[in-house]
Amino acid sequence: MTTISTTTLGTTAPLTVSALGLGCMGMSEFYGAPDEEAGLATINRALDLGVTFLDTADMYGPFVNERLVGKAIAGRRDEVQLATKFGNQRGEGGSFLGVNGSPDYVRSACDASLQRLGVDHIDLYYQHRVDKTVPIEETVGAMKELVDAGKVRFLGLSEASAATIRRAHAVHPITALQSEYSLFTRDLEDEILPTLRELGIGLVPYSPLGRGMLTGAISKDALDAGDSRAAGRFPRFEGDNLDANLALVDQVRTIAGDKGCTPGQLALAWVLAQGDAGLGVAPIPGTKRVRYLEENVAALDVTLSQDDLDALEKAVPRGAVAGDRYADLSTIDA
Fold it and tell me: Catalytic site residue 326?
């Protein structure tokens, strides 16, 4: 059985987590019908395997996913590094109300998350998206108050630019940046990864499997009608873009076959290989199925040589992926 190692995110404010985390979002929304029973089983299996870094957010559901995670970890809180997020504000009916980074909202959002999760503290609390109408210093100042109050242990940002990261880190040490990063999305490599290394901030890649495309299981007819990937939100899953991107996945599949692993395991191994002594990396592939969780965990046993990395670079050159990662990029800090 795979022995799951640990990774340290950040050096100024270090947090040790399992080398592979679990993204819980899809258990409640966005990727087909929610399945609480399967989600609970998957989280409990993750903990049994040593995957203890769990990721949720108040907006998932909305609010439902935090309750699910809280239910799953009841009685096992000490095993878990629990991450959640605020900032993408939603109404009870699911409406999107915009990005909110105001200090009062930071405080109220944290208290609501603690209640839903059924815990007395959050290990890693992220600003989910940067509120461009509120100075980051004010938002992080309010987040710092949560640390001082013992409600939060460590702070994070998501989809923040290098400049924003620097400003935030000057107010209070940032432990981790959570942003999209995979063989298909490498925007971070120009400015953000060097900034993280310089400041001693870890990286938590979400969608490390390209929203599932890099598993090799996606086809034109594979997505349910209720799946957001089939609803125009993600241009990479549409029309000619999908055809071009599936051709890239075929290249990954060929290399994976030579390595004796699945395409998804190879893609995860690539993300894991981007970490080094100067950058802790803990990807959080999401799933609501135990069998996919177990497949993802087995990626920790896949070791990539420089030849393997070179072959992947040739198979999926940076910039080769067709289509933007979101149809609406307006909430991405740049």
Answer: no
